[in-house]
Amino acid sequence: MIKLHFLGGARIVSGNSYLLETGSKKILIDCGLFQGPPGLERKNQEPFSFNPSEIDFIIITHSHLDHIGRLPMLIEDGFKGKIFATPPTKDFTYLMLEDTKKVLTEKARRGDVMMLFTESEIHQIMDLFVPIEYHKETKISDDISFEFYEAGHILGSAIIKLTLRQAQGKKLTVVFSGDLGNYPVPILRSLENIDEADYVLVESTYGDRLHEKREKTRDIIEDAVEETITKKGVLMIPSFALERAQQVIYDLNELVENERFQPLPIFIDSPLAIEVTKIYEKYSDYFNKEASALIKSGDDIFKFPGLKFTPSVKESKQISEIAPPKIIIAGSGMSQGGRILHHELRYLSDERNVLLMVTYQAVGTLGRQILDGAKEVEILDQKINIRAKIESITGYSAHADQKGIMNWLSSIRKPIKKIFVVQGEEKPANVLAQLIRDNLGIQAEVPQMGEIAELE
Length: 456
Description:
Blueprint: E1 2-8, E2 17-21, E3 26-29, H1 38-41, E4 57-59, H2 65-68, H3 73-76, E5 82-85, H4 87-109, H5 119-126, E6 129-131, E7 138-141, E8 144-150, E9 158-165, E10 171-176, E11 199-203, H6 214-231, E12 234-238, H7 244-257, E13 266-268, H8 271-282, H9 289-296, E14 307-309, H10 313-318, E15 326-330, H11 340-347, E16 354-357, H12 366-371, E17 376-379, E18 382-385, E19 389-392, H13 402-410, E20 418-422, H14 426-440, E21 444-445, E22 452-455
Parallel strand pairs: 3-4, 4-5, 5-6, 10-11, 11-20, 12-15, 12-16, 13-14, 13-15, 16-19, 20-21
Antiparallel strand pairs: 1-2, 1-22, 2-3, 7-8, 8-9, 9-10, 17-18
Helix pairs in contact: 4-5, 4-8
């Protein structure tokens, strides 16, 4: 009997990790950080519920922290196996882990958290990575192989199709969706369909809702910029350094080059986003046709009039000396840390300014409080009255919405025995599971954290 352990991502969006026991091998799919309110984040300090030294292989869907953030912690407990990921995912993982260590070091100095891993453990875990391209069937044992498919979520993100070959020529196929992309979006290619599956683990972040149309997304950001210019205010855009910042830059580049608004200073105030952008430029062959055509025509999509990168603390502080109107893109996307907090502290109390949210805001985060209409919040130990205009764009989401998820599931031809709905809060996960049962006639369940499913 094959066992599937739900170690994270069960009725929550973070801590994603799944352990597959085949009898001969133990395979870990992702090993992510728990993110959100303090109670949930304390789970990162708990011991693993398995013995890392017994894990044979790890397969990574993509490099967001909620999928890779606990990897270095495996080293101390004896993990020495191979880690498979696409080439961009490997490069991004190193950047994300290094940045996390810096953030944790600062928080540990204040006594807020314990250190989770060391610099040495980051380097040790990176030495175990084996880069694998899409559509290259990779045999990891006599009876187990996997293949990566384009997930369209971030650059290098993958759907994992894992095949277990059994006696008498039988085989069992388990598909891990990872995070499915929201096509069409800037830069990224569309997610790919899977031809067959016995069992599917599917994400459900937006399992209960639909996104705005892509055209509306561009209209909202253009309107926000125009309002900022008219009021001589500041447009703040909290953004994840990986993927979202690059997509916003791409759209601003298009608006500037088409002269949709007068030039103004645009600051990318995130050292991590700057380094991530360099990797995007390195892997431009992973871009979609539209972005590739722009590059071939000589358009550098990450450089245009008014755009300025501010990697150093000194340059970041100097942003406040620049008279508005201006645009500031900074991390973190949920306002849980990073340089955006300093800008929110300075500008949220002024009604001339706009805070434009372009990322998912998890329950318990500062960003979610602001999005839900809080009139007063605490930032860096100071209480701030919110008078700035709060706007939100869901069309930028890197996650498929309900329709996108259902379309992807419907494309799987082989009858599916069961679908496990994961990587979503309880409400959207339950809504999606019911929709799958009603519309596709497939058994679907929302597993609990720590649950173990037996796969026949």
